[in-house]
Amino acid sequence: MRSRPSSGRRRGSEPPEPEFLIDRGLSQLSLPQALRDAGLTVRTLAEVYGEQRAQETEDRTWLALAGERGWIVLCKDDRIRRQPAELDALTEGKVRLFCLTNANLTFAGQAEWFLVNRYRIIQASRKPGPYAYGVYRDRIDKLWPKPDRPS
Fold it and tell me: H-type helices in the chain, by residue range?
């Protein structure tokens, strides 16, 4: 009987699969479906709150919920990390946020950028928040908080 090579991890020590929450500024149909087709667990604000309430829910409220539930936020509104109430929610909830750096992408482009970077996003999201990363065509870069630079 052949034994499998060990991955070096003991059973049960695998990190849990990440769960993503998609901001209402992104596609609420084609993007979630593309990410689900790639095997990711995804929620939209409409699924969490209902369609009408999702439109009315303030960013700081759903960001706090994402932090409470450990969901990784995907968005395209880079200003979210610059607004005082939202920044407080990011910080207090230790939210892990990944933001497209091109707000003019088509829905297909949104899916492509997130999927090309999905392993980078998953790897980065294993670190505790709060933080925000920019998602580019072929990489992710930390946007906030900026790492301290040596003097």
Answer: 30-37, 45-49, 51-56, 59-69, 84-92, 107-116, 118-125
Torsion sign across C-alpha atoms 45, 48, 54, 60: negative
Condensed to tens digits (0 to 9), the pLDDT of residues 57-96 reads: 999 999 999 999 999 999 998 788 889 999 999 999 999 9
- For residues 75 and 99, the answer to whether their CB atoms sit within 8 Å is yes
**What CA–CA distance (Å, rounded) separates 81 from 127?**
18
- Strand 19-22 with 41-44, pairing: parallel
Average pLDDT for 1-19: 60
Cis peptide before 145 (omega within 30 of 0): yes
Per DSSP, the chain holds a count of helices (H) and strands (E) of 7, 6
Q: Quick: pLDDT tens for 31-49.
A: 999 999 999 999 999 999 9
